[in-house]
Amino acid sequence: MGKAFHTQLRVPAEERFLHLAQGHIRDLAHAAGFPDKDVLALELAAEEAFQNICTHAYPDGTPGDIVVNGEMLEGELRLEFMDEGLPFDPALLNSQPKQMKSETFGLGLKLIHHSVDEVRWVNRGRQGKAMCLVKQMPVQDAAYNDTQTAALSPTDDHHSRSEQVQASRHPVTQKQSFIIRPLQPEDALQVARLFWLTYGYSYKNEAFYRPEGLLDLVTKGVLMSYVAVTQGGEVAGHAGLLRPEPVPMAEMALLVVSPLYRGQGLMQPFFSALTTQANEMELFGLSFNSVTSHPVSQRKIIKSGGCPCGLDLGSCPPRQFKAMALEDGPRPRESFLHCFLYLKEAPPAVAYVPKRHQRIIRLIYENLGRYPASAKDLTSSDQGLEQRQEGFYTVSFDRGLLKGVVRVKAADERQWPEIRRATEDLLNIAGAEAVNLDLPLSQPSTADLCELAEAAGFFFAGVWPHAAEDGDMLRLIRLPAPMDMNTLQLHSDFSNELAQYVGKEMDRAMGLK
Questions:
Q1: More confident residue, 158 or 128
Q2: Band of pLDDT at residue 199, cut at 50, 70 and 90
Q3: Distance between CA 5 and CA 9 in Å, rounded?
């Protein structure tokens, strides 16, 4: 096996840079020893790949780059055209509605397939996607005359092809009618494209940029996915219920609407469809995590009956909303206001917490319309060691979010040394920028674990109703550095009261007060 050689070229995704990419491919092909006929074929494939990315990956003049990677191996040349534009899945292309297809796009793919020996696609989540081309060296090099090479020359004009592509469509202002229904496999590509159009590649869950990742979540039952479809079959929006744990609640999330159909009032029909689904699943209710970088979604959720009960600080890297003009410069990690909406009568609350948190816990439950199960003291565990259940917890780390989660399912303060060590590993080895510690409020040992965790830098963040298998969940957070609470934009009076309490607890945990 001979030595492999690698090259890379990055250029803006604009047609005026096409000749740079073709020149790179031409020089690489000559260096690999291909005859002139094959060199010209590779130039043609490069032209089509480059044009397709410029036309289809970055719509409406969205700026972006094309990265051309070359890998010269013994007997073959591999070329990779990478972009961070709209998601694409060729396996679903034939099932897309007619308006989603492009004759020039299909022709370009055929020309690429005829120019090389192998074409494959790679979805890379937030890193975008790549078209990989493989050209095998001929068994025996042959001489080709000018007539033969001329037969492979491109005959279509770049500008005439570009003119065939439809101009950017403007948002639809006339009121439309939509069908709200469960997601079908052929919808997955359009949904992935909606996430890119809304967030670029800044959305917190990478699976939603890959059609196969989205469908996998649906198949596993983690996601109940619904789409809004126009009369012509175009996916105009998406919303879903997330339920990664077998608990009697789900999170209403993943609401994205095509820029063409914003302002059409899709949130209400999605809300109706998903609450119907939740009632069929016999859930207690639904949770909502609204961003705190703006109050719009909070206002809608609270108006619909969602009650603020927690504040998830520094939960994920900042999102880039394409529809909003955000300030220049670095932005803090995104935080979320956690709200809960009951769909059936709320059960009595059982919450074992340290005494200093009892007042805010009571206010949270009153806001939710719930009251304690009894008046007994719920400040500490009074069980004997021989009666206690053995502790059990899980640890996870999301590399994309730089976030760790320690989820305690069976509380036992004797396991605190292990939990603390796991937390330190998440922060110092994995590089987590936030660590959540989730504790089951209905278990007496939670009060003792809470005391231990807060002495080690965790702070109170709120109550997550029915997020534990046996009741509600207490969330504590540990951050490497304090957050500026003044950057939060909160809608309701109770949200601000909760934020004031969480901010004071954060300062206490970090020794600022």
A1: 128
A2: confident
A3: 14
Q: Is 2 helix (H, G, I), strand (E, B) or coil?
A: coil
Q: Which residues contact 84 (CB under 8 A, 6 or more apart)?
A: 64, 65, 127, 128, 200, 201
Say which DSSP state 329 is in. S
Task: Collect all residues with Cβ–Cβ distance below 8 Å to 123 and sequence separation of at least 6.
Answer: 87, 89, 129, 209, 210, 211, 212, 213
Two tokens, residue 53: 């990315």
Q: How confident is the model at residue 165 (pLDDT cuts 50, 70, 90)?
A: very low
Concatenated DSSP letters of 348-398: PB-----GGGHHHHHHHHHHHT--BS-SS--SS----GGGPPPPEEEEEEE
Backbone angles phi, psi at 72, to 5 degrees: -95, 115
In single-letter form, the type of residue at position 94 comes to N
Structure tokens at 232: 């012509």
**What does the pLDDT read at residue 108?**
59
String of DSSP letters for 218-285: HHHTSEEEEEEE-TTS-EEEEEEEE--SSSSEEEEEEEEE-GGGTTS--HHHHHHHHHHHHHHTT-SE
Strand order across the 129-136 sheet: 5-12, 65-73, 76-83, 129-136, 118-123
**SS3 string of 150-219?**
HCCCCCCCHHHHHHHCCCCCCCCCCCCCCEEEECCHHHHHHHHHHHHHHHCCCCCCHHHHCHHHHHHHHH
Phi, psi of 377 (to 5 degrees): -70, 120
Tokens of 479: 């951050």
∠ at Cα 46 (41, 47), nearest 5°?
95
Ranking 6-20, 115-129, 209-223, 392-406 by mean pLDDT, the lowest is: 115-129
- Please report which confidence band the pLDDT of residue 148 belongs to, taking 50, 70 and 90 as the band edges: very low
